[in-house]
UniProtKB/TrEMBL annotation:
Keyword hit for Amino-acid biosynthesis: no
Name assigned to this protein: LLM class F420-dependent oxidoreductase
Domain Luciferase-like: 7-257
Single GO molecular function: alkanesulfonate monooxygenase activity
Biological process (GO), any one: alkanesulfonate catabolic process
Keywords attached to this entry: Flavoprotein, FMN, Monooxygenase, Oxidoreductase
Keyword Signal among UniProt keywords: no
Taxonomic source organism: Halobellus salinus
Length: 319
């Protein structure tokens, strides 16, 4: 299937009593549901499967990101696999490079690696991690990306840095993708994160209303000019949660179960896709016109596939 926007689907890793769950019909996360949903998305023509990176989002089950992605690699054939977005501070950067290189080999070159500095302090401290300041976590992420790229492309790496010291480190087999898996940087921090995206990212991903995203794109463009990197070299990617049904009455019935997606403050910053297929198409066209080339969608009715199927049949061919 071809479309002017590339479409990915989030495969949730937590549900039920997660303190920030957006999945009112998923009371318990289950690998069988994740696998079936990923397979259905691939069969329907979606381009990628995104998997969030959390280790504890409540008292219920939360599946680990890279393990879940590896399971999906074995359950699918062609779809891009999208760890989205790795909480860098929870991973030792050089070992993350090794893990992702192996995953790229196992999947036949289908990995697209999302990177972020993390935001959820309570899960980190619950697992015994210290939680540095945001600037420190961002410096750590910058060094991780630099080290990963070297490990993926060089035969042997020695590195003396602020966070990592490597001595003749070998990361083979190298990734299948040449020169390495694409790197997505997620986040909207205008002073540091967007500057890092301008310098390192193949893709930049964030969420928000049309006005918010227009402003972020302007800042990203300025950082690209400073970094002497073409703005168009970075794929622009938008994340949104979605409620889609054939009729207005069906949409309203679903909103009664998920009231946070109603009104002007629906979703995160007014950025949810809510409505009939025609209404969702209209919303998406505004983001496409703004310059977004990829949309990652999380369907609120997971693990049902009603929204997943309707979106593929009636939205993707139109936008």
């Amino acid at each position: 299937m071809t479309h002017s926007i590339r479409y990915g689907v989030n495969v949730p890793t937590s549900g039920g009593d997660s303190e920030h769950t957006s999945l009112p019909f998923c009371d318990h996360i289950d690998w069988q549901d994740q696998r079936a949903f990923g397979r259905a998305a691939e069969a329907l023509g979606y381009d990628s499967l995104g998997v969030p990176d959390h280790i504890m989002t409540g008292s219920g089950p939360t599946t680990e990101c890279l393990t879940t992605v590896t399971g999906l690699a074995g359950a699918t054939d062609d779809v891009t696999l999208y760890p989205k977005t790795i909480n860098n501070h929870l991973r030792h950067g050089p070992l993350l490079a090794k893990t992702v290189a192996t995953l790229d080999v196992v999947s036949g070159g289908r990995v697209k690696l999302g990177m972020g500095a993390g935001w959820k302090a309570d899960e980190a401290t619950a697992y015994g991690y210290e939680w540095p300041s945001a600037p420190a976590r961002l410096r750590e992420m910058r060094e991780t990306i630099e080290v990963m790229k070297r490990l993926w492309t060089e035969d042997e790496v020695t590195h003396d840095g602020e966070f990592y010291d490597l001595e003749a480190a070998i990361c083979k087999p190298h990734p299948v993708q040449d020169p390495h898996p694409p790197i997505m940087i997620g986040g909207g921090g205008e002073q540091i994160t967007l500057r890092m995206a301008a310098e390192y990212a193949d893709t930049w991903n964030y969420y928000g209303s049309l006005g918010k995203m227009e402003r972020k794109l302007g800042v990203l463009r300025e950082h690209c000019e400073t970094a002497d990197r073409p703005f168009d070299a970075i794929e622009k990617s938008w994340f949104a949660r979605c409620i889609v049904r054939e009729t207005e009455a069906e949409v309203q019935a679903l909103l009664e179960e998920a009231p946070r997606f109603s009104g002007d403050h629906a979703g995160s910053g007014g950025a949810a896709l809510v409505g009939t297929p025609a209404e969702v198409c209209e919303q998406l066209r505004s983001y496409r016109e703004l310059g977004f080339e990829e949309v990652i969608v999380e369907f609120v009715d997971f693990p049902e596939t009603t929204g997943l199927e309707l979106f593929a049949d009636e939205v993707m061919p139109q936008v």
